[in-house]
Amino acid sequence: MAGQQVQGTQVVGRVALLLRIVARSADAGASLPEIVRASGLTRPTVYRLLAALAAEGLLDHNAESGTWYLGPELYVMGTVAAGRFAIEDLARPGLRRLADETGESAFLSIRRGDETVCLVREEGSFPLRSFVLHEGLRLPLGVGSAGLAILAFLPDDEVDRLLADTASREGRFGPGHTPETIRGILAQTRRDGYAVNPGLILEGSWGMGAAVFDRNDRPAWALSLTGIEQRFRPERQQFLGRLLLEEAHKITQQLRQQSAV
């Protein structure tokens, strides 16, 4: 029985991994070789699990292109679950205010495990924009302003664990993601309350973020602004940071009031 339980848990973990991989390419779809490479599983195992997920409606397969997409059953499940996780509805007015007052693109991201996932984007009026961040994009905690804002307020042991795998971070997201650089940003974030990403992912594309806390006072979401470097000069960062913190605090308070009801 113990062996069967371990095997069953392993299958669930693999299924969840494949769904997350496909979700990263929600619009363009993911090919079988891409999924195999990203998962580290064997091709027969991946195909068998993908086919089973498609049979249940959790994935959709385009036979002509060979690409895989999230399936209609996930949409139904997401719609049902949305009532319990109304963070998007709470955040949209604040995101709109941020976009209107700053002219930059404003985002809501959620923590999922060791990653952040971008949920909502509100466009600002400034004609030059950064397109590094978009809905559905997953980034490791500590990469991007939202992930930095969340990571800064996690316990030290979690921060140490998440920053241990430095080689993959630097390889995927640029040489600026060293432990020393990230720890310096985290320390500054704790002092200011908001995080600044000085173009670490893409040169010239800057971002700022502020954490939103759950009822247990843990950082579970983040609001962020992105744009070109010239719009994030030091003299403007305090203005942007104040707006982010105000909106993040409003959402945190609303979430706590809902939990108390």
Automatic annotation (TrEMBL):
Pfam families for the chain: HTH_IclR (PF09339), IclR_C (PF01614)
The entry's keywords: DNA-binding, Transcription, Transcription regulation
Domain HTH iclR-type: 9-72
SUPFAM superfamilies given in the database record: GAF domain-like (SSF55781), Winged helix' DNA-binding domain (SSF46785)
Transmembrane segments: none
InterPro entries: GAF-like_dom_sf (IPR029016), HTH_MetabolicPath_Reg (IPR050707), Tscrpt_reg_IclR_C (IPR014757), Tscrpt_reg_IclR_N (IPR005471), WH-like_DNA-bd_sf (IPR036388), WH_DNA-bd_sf (IPR036390)
Chain ranges of the IclR-ED domain: 73-257
Protein name in UniProt: IclR family transcriptional regulator
